[in-house]
Predict the structure.
Amino acid sequence: MKRYFPWVVILLVVVSLASSWRMLKTAPGEFDFKKFGEIPVLSAGRLKPLDTVARNALVILRGRQTLRLENGRTLTATHWLADVVFNAPAADQYPAFAINNPEVLGLFGWQQGERKYFSFDELAPFLEKIDGQGQQAGEIESAQRSPYQTAIYNLRNTLVVYQQLKRSVRPEDAQDFAAEVETYGKLIPIAMEATKKGDKADPSEKEKLGMFDKLTQRYQSLAETSSIQPVPPLDSAARERGEWLSIGASLVGTGGVSHTVKAYAVMGDAYRANKPDVFNGEVKALAAAMAEQEPVATGRASFEFLFNHIAPFYQSMQLYVLVFLLVCGSWLGWSRSLNRTAIYVTLIAFAIHTFGLAARMYLQGRPPVTNLYSSAIFIGWGTVIIGLFLERMFRDGIGLACSSVIGFITLIIAHHLAGSGDTLEMLRAVLDTNIWLATHVVSITIGYSAMFLAGVLAIIYVIRGVCTRSLTRESAHSLASMTYGVICFATLFSFVGTVLGGIWADQSWGRFWGWDPKENGALLIVLWCAIILHARWGGYIRQRGLMVLALFGNVVTSFSWFGVNMLGVGLHSYGFMDKAFPWLMGFVGSQLALMAMAAIPLDCWRSRLTE
């Protein structure tokens, strides 16, 4: 049984992954939301599939990528988006808006209860009040807003996102939009001729010119409120500049009705009339036309749809939990068999993690770290690599345990950082330099990975030593050797990354160092690593002292990684995150508590170590 156990577990993991990666097929008589979700559009400055637009919007509104209705039915993101853009009256009844603040609920005369999701129809009578209160809150600095002001400001923004989506593809009151745009196309030459004639135009031409002007104003309003540009550029120059158009802008500015606009109009009418065959046929035809006209954009959109469906980081997260359980089991019994299984599962999780990281690099066309979200993913990825090397050297499960814990935690952090919407967002101008993103940022982030790994090794040392009898002299020496080696590794990458950052700053801002909070954080990591190493070399600390200083390294690294963004100041602050502040303080408190635990006299430790 022990001999075949690893292969049984691997088989179960592979079968589970294969079932989750399998694309669901559209049944006859149902709307093809899969093909609809693959269609590329321009949104927020980036070409992406409609599936990504839907997922990002739902995350902003509800905090999830699916919508659960009050009757227990669950809608996919693309199904919800189709209702929003094609059948707004139905979407307005969905409980898509999350409201947790009791003061915001009190503003509407509602009591806080079991419900925390509300529909647009329920909020519609209070739109003017929400807009006014939200604008006032927006005039206050993020760090100074009260919980109510933050909640009302966020609610206002989510309502703006929703209303822009509703007005992106068709007017809300349009019934037969395909016939309307066809009429508009026929009126264009007549209106142009009537305009040339001026007062000499006959009454019939003037009447049609009036109809044309009315529709033009209608589509101009649609262009001003749209958050999606689904119409690809027609000429090569505009294509090179990536100037996609909204439905309204295409109707008003191109002097005709494009095939894409007609396709969306027919799709919308078919959807509202509950004609899935017509809808699916038009979606398929539009996708084929897009693939011929914009092959690169269509290919990337299809790949991003696959990436969204697979959710590689969520899969890796689950596997890291399994690895940790297997490692814990190996310490209790069946050590060799369970340890081998844990190694194989770690390699599978790491491969999926790597696929997700590489997919993001392909879709964004950038190095792996471009924002806080990607830094969390990369820190976990780097930690797993180092952990696998430690396991190769020491073969005691410690490296696997640490890498699985940090891999899981960093992916959880990334999951919560994705709440702001698109994690593949456009880069800020100051960061738009691939060579420095691939050197300075990656080096600094690898330094973070190593510092956190050293800290987790220290946590294991302290907990095993104080609370259990499992920390023997040999295992303590092994943990100390791992921690020391990882800190040396962190010192190298943190120092190199900091120097490279200074060179980048000199090129971008004309100064090598400016005592910016992020620069100070990077310097503190280098200095703290140097303090640990010199204290060790000078004999000022031994094993326990090394672990205590490594624990405080977690505090220093967490402030450098997250803390500077919470200050809301400095050239490197790219997003204030007040929600993370309690978690950061809780983490710091836990490390200080572990340091105090480590300071307990060795006679009181259950493991009875001697230094």
User: Anything to note?
Assistant: The chain has a mean pLDDT of 89. The first helix runs from residue 5 to 21. The two ends are 42 Å apart (CA to CA). The beta strands are 40-43, 46-49, 67-68, 74-75, 97-98, 117-118.
